[in-house]
Design a protein that fits this description.
The structure holds two protein chains of two kinds. Chain A has two helices and 17 strands. Chain A has helices spanning 2-31, 218-223; strands at 34-42, 45-48, 54-56, 62-64, 68-71, 76-81, 86-89, 94-99, 107-119, 131-135, 138-142, 146-153, 165-173, 175-180, 188-191, 194-199, 208-209. In chain B, strands 1-2-3-4-5-6-7-8-9-10-11-12 form a twelve-stranded antiparallel barrel. In chain B, strand 4 and strand 5 (128-139) form a beta hairpin. Classes of the chains: A mainly beta, B mainly beta. At the A-B interface, strand 17 of A face helix 2, strand 1, strand 2, strand 3 and strand 6 of B.
């Protein structure tokens, strides 16, 4: 009887151990699901693995689900996911690849700071409509292919009444639905050629033409604020400074039709 | 007359400074000011250096003008920057038409001159700029000029923002005040380009002109984002009869 009990306890213990081992192994396997690899890296770029290890990124290095990618002030990296979607990570950026599924499943990237560009492969089983970028105050859900998402904190922009955190989305191809993080179903559709902003916990602004509303994009973060201000200096159209010469001198009082000096 | 103008300008500046002081001093308006112009007194970091290379031409029945130049602007605070502009002009004047630069000096088929200006750019609110500058001409023109350019984008968060711009130049050599007003909207915005359209015109008065002169017409613009290059064209009618003009510009910018 006592031997049976010992056998039973040992069996239960072994079973529990086996289940635990399986759980740990499966968790590790899940955490290390390969999602893609770096195509190019410049400047300081680091990968924080799920287990806590931090390694330097380089071309060809793999990226797993759960990895966090951090670029320095001069860092820049391009990632190719296994569904051929392309993520371009700008300087001073911190992202995490939370979820990735090949074949039309959900893909989710968290952007904690900085700016990233997504070129989503909507065809051939790519992430398509299930691709989302989450920031602390907004969700950008893709119905298109190419867009930038930027998240800025501790910055005050004129016209936003003291708000200090902003998510900007600039759309180049397709349409992106931009919403507050608390109400992802009440977003604003931003079409190709336009950009919009979620300031603090407010609803997204109406979209305006690219590089005009003050939204941060990959270009403006890298190239120094390449915003469109208008036409040539001193003029909205053409040669203003020379315009006195446009006057027909025959109509000028007293000067007639000219003559010698 | 020149003294009167200077007096008027000085009075306006004094009034503006006075109003600004009152606005800043009032505690009730302090918060409004802080919300509207956050970081007004702090330096812009990183600094921004911008350059614009531009060129263009104007042709009418009796005159032709080519211009080319460069403008460089350095940010100081988020709302104030300083800029310098150098422009070269080549004028072709039809036979029997007098030099517009120095009336009474006779008729010249061709005049060349350069203009060097320096001034400040004030960002009054997002999308709204006021440029104030002064400068002097060299070569065939010896004028001292003052210029003010105001440009404001309205309804930036919409599909078709509208730009209202106004430029005015006073030329001390011929005494003419030249002003241009323009209204444009963005017809189409795409990943790589924008198309703009509007109407614009110019007016000239004062100095040797007995009556105000002017011209105007529709204009069309195109901006190519990857190269940061824009082209704008206008055609119309006025005292110079039919005219056409085109301008091109290339924008460059660097963080410091």
């Amino acid at each position: 009887m006592r031997r049976d009990r010992i056998h039973f306890s040992a069996g239960v213990a072994a079973g529990l151990l086996l289940v635990s081992a399986l759980f740990v192994v499966s968790r590790t396997a899940l955490a290390q699901t390969a999602a893609g690899s770096f195509q190019s890296v410049s400047g300081q770029v680091q990968i924080q693995r799920t287990g806590g290890a931090t390694i330097g990124a380089a071309s060809g290095v793999g990226v797993n689900v759960g990895d966090r990618i951090i670029t320095g002030a001069n860092g820049h990296a391009v990632l190719i996911l296994n569904d051929q979607s392309r993520l371009e990570v700008g300087p001073g950026t911190n992202i995490a690849l939370d979820q990735f599924t090949v074949g039309g499943g959900p893909t989710r990237v968290s952007l904690f700071s900085g700016v990233m560009r997504s070129l989503v492969n909507a065809g051939s089983g790519g992430a398509g409509a299930n691709y989302q970028v989450h920031t602390p105050n907004a969700v950008a859900a893709v119905r298109g292919t190419k867009f930038d998402t930027a998240y800025s904190e501790n910055v005050i922009r004129p016209g936003y009444q003291g708000c200090e955190k902003y998510t900007d989305v600039s759309v180049y191809q397709g349409t992106v639905n931009l919403a507050q993080v608390g109400s992802p179903n009440t977003g604003e559709d931003v079409r190709a050629g336009y950009e919009a902003t979620v300031p603090c916990d407010k609803p997204p602004t109406e979209s305006g033409p690219l590089s005009m509303t003050g939204a941060v994009s990959l270009e403006s973060a890298v190239a120094g604020g390449a915003s469109f201000a208008g036409a040539a200096p001193g003029s909205s159209a053409a040669p203003v400074p020379a315009c006195p010469v446009c006057v027909n001198m025959t109509t000028v009082s007293g000067t007639g039709t000219g003559g010698g000096r | 007359m020149v003294k009167n103008r200077i007096c008027r300008i000085c009075t306006t500046v004094v009034l503006l400074v006075g109003l600004s002081a009152i606005t800043i001093a009032s505690p009730a308006h302090a918060q409004w000011f802080e919300d509207t112009y956050p970081g007004f007194f702090s330096l812009q970091t990183p600094g921004l250096l911008q350059a614009t290379i531009f060129g263009g031409g104007f042709v009418s029945d009796k005159y032709g003008v080519l211009q080319e130049g460069v403008q460089v602007e350095q940010s100081v605070t988020p709302y104030v920057g300083f800029f310098g502009r150098a422009t070269g002009y080549q004028l072709w004047i039809g036979q029997g038409f007098e030099s517009p630069l120095a009336p009474g000096s006779g008729s010249f088929p061709r005049l060349n001159f350069g203009r060097f200006q320096g001034g400040a750019d004030f960002t009054l609110c997002p999308g709204t700029h006021l440029y104030v500058s002064a400068g002097h001409d060299v070569a065939d023109s010896d004028a001292t000029i003052v210029e003010g350019d105001f440009s404001s984008w309205l309804w930036l968060h919409s599909q078709h923002p509208i730009n209202a711009s106004f430029s005015t130049i006073y030329d001390w050599q011929n005494g003419v005040e030249s002003s241009e007003i323009d209204l444009q909207t963005i017809l189409l915005s795409r990943e790589k380009y924008m198309i703009l359209a509007g109407i614009g015109g110019a007016m000239y008065f004062g100095g040797f002109l007995s009556n105000a002169q002017g011209q105007g017409g529709p204009d069309l613009g195109f901006y190519y984002r990857p190269w940061q290059i824009g082209v704008s064209a206008q055609a119309g009618y006025g005292n110079a009869h039919q005219y056409g003009q085109i301008s091109m510009y290339k924008q460059l910018s660097w963080f410091e």
